[in-house]
Structures are given as C-alpha cells and as structure tokens.
Amino acid sequence: MRFLQLIHSQTRSRFGFHSREPDFSKGKVQICEKRSAAEFPMLVSSELKWDDARWPSGTGEFFRGLSFDARRDFELLATHFQCPPTEVLIGEEQIPFSILFLLEGEVNLSMNSPDGRRFLVGVAGAGDILGLSSAVSGDSSEIRAEARFSCKIASLQRQDFLDFLLNYPTAYQNVIRELSRLYRRSCERLRILGLTMSVPAKVARLVLDWCREGQKTKSGTEIRCMLTHEEIGECIGASRETVTRTLTDLKNQGLIRLNGSTLIVPSCMALAVYAGIDSMRFPNEPVA
Length: 288
Prior knowledge:
The protein is α+β, with helices and mostly antiparallel strands. It has helices at 2-15, 68-77, 132-137, 158-167, 169-195, 199-211, 229-236, 240-252, 268-275, and strands at 30-31, 79-83, 88-90, 98-104, 107-112, 118-124, 129-130, 144-147, 151-157, 215-217, 220-224, 257-259, 262-265. 38% of the residues lie in helices and 20% in strands.
C-alpha cells in the first residue's frame, strides 16, 4: 500500500500536480433498485473457481472464488447506481467514505494540476475497483476518477467493505492480488516516464504495456485502443501532434496496424527493439 502511495507521490512531484478537485456529489447519481442475479455476473455459480475458464469476463478478480454466501452478503451491502459521463466519482485528496465497483462503463484515472494539465494514469473498465488503495489504508485519494461514459457502479461503505474482508478471507486474498497488480502497473508507468528519453520510445513502451492484456491472434496482439491521441499524450507527457506523428511512423514501419479502434502489434519483439527494450522478453515471437 505504501509503495503505491509513494509511486503516486513521486509522479505528482515530477509533474507538479496538486489537487483542486471537489468531492463526488451523491446528488448527481441515479440510485438503482436491487437487480436480479442475471444482471450482475459476479453472482455466478459458487462452483466456479479462480482459474475456471467459464468465469465471466468483466467481473474483476475480486469476486473470483467467493462463496454463494459471500456474494449474497456483498449484494446486501451494495448500493447500485448509474452515473452520467464526465461525472467525478472520486476527487484527489478525497477522504475514503466508500469504495466503488465498476460494473459497466469506463473511468479515467488521472492526476491534475491547478494550471489545467492532466496526467492520465489509466482507464478503469468493467470489473475494476475504484478507490481500493485509499479504502484499505484510510488515507485520502491520490487520483481523480471521472466517468468517460455512462457507468453502472456498486458502492459499499468503507467500513462495510473492511468488515466484509474480515468475514471472507478469499475476498481479502483477492484484494491483495489486485493491489499487487496495481503496484506492477504503477512501476511500469514510472519506467516509461522516468527511464525513457524520447517520445517515440515512450509511445512504443506504452503500447507494449497494453499488450500484456491484449488478445493474442495469428496476426499479432490485438488491443482495443480506448484513448485519443491527446489522451495518449497525457499518459506520457507529450503533445497530441507528437503522438500522431509517432503512431504514423510506427504504422509506416509495420510495427503497428490500425483497424478502427483496434490496434494490432504484429510482433512485440520488433516493437521492443524499436523502444530499446531487451527483446529476449519475447523469445517466442519472430521479428517482423
């Protein structure tokens, strides 16, 4: 937990970011009635285990392996609501009064400066948990969470969430896994920002980072590109124009292909060579 907070603090210092965001206003959300089990895929059969291929996608790791009783208690504790696009769900330095489980939609996670600059930490999708690190530690939030599109969310009061972890050790273990994943992602982002000099190398490393969760196909690794060129620039501290030129250059060299919103990397090894990364990280891929 402290590692994550240190990484966020160092990134904030590097870019000169300071909080100026208000708290999320509950009055702007639409509270939903209790939904049926069919509408929430975390309420699947208790027979499914952690590594079961039948586990529904988009439900997040938190619910894997939970018993029927645990999932039932979660639903009893949760309040479901829907928020509109651009709604600020969590503000920087906001005290954690609740924790949010993103069921549908996408949420920008960022740090913002008083002069309007933004560092885009990432984009949360269905199954992700918003405000996890601050909910566990009790410290104020290091990031701002803003809905990209209309989102469906399950909210738990912080103390209810902590009590739930104590009552169900499997959920506690899943939270540890999730925090470890967030720590790894933070390290990768710092590596891109702090140890890469040129913008083209930063863009290439960012794409390679996305490849970790991309779909492997015969034509390469397919990535759903959710970000605009301007937002990619906010991820690495570059202008939109520079990102556009870099992506065009990568495309001309055959290192990436674009098919609508899908970005295809034919060879991660070739892209790694371009980015100055040890290509032996991808021993099973030929250089394109």
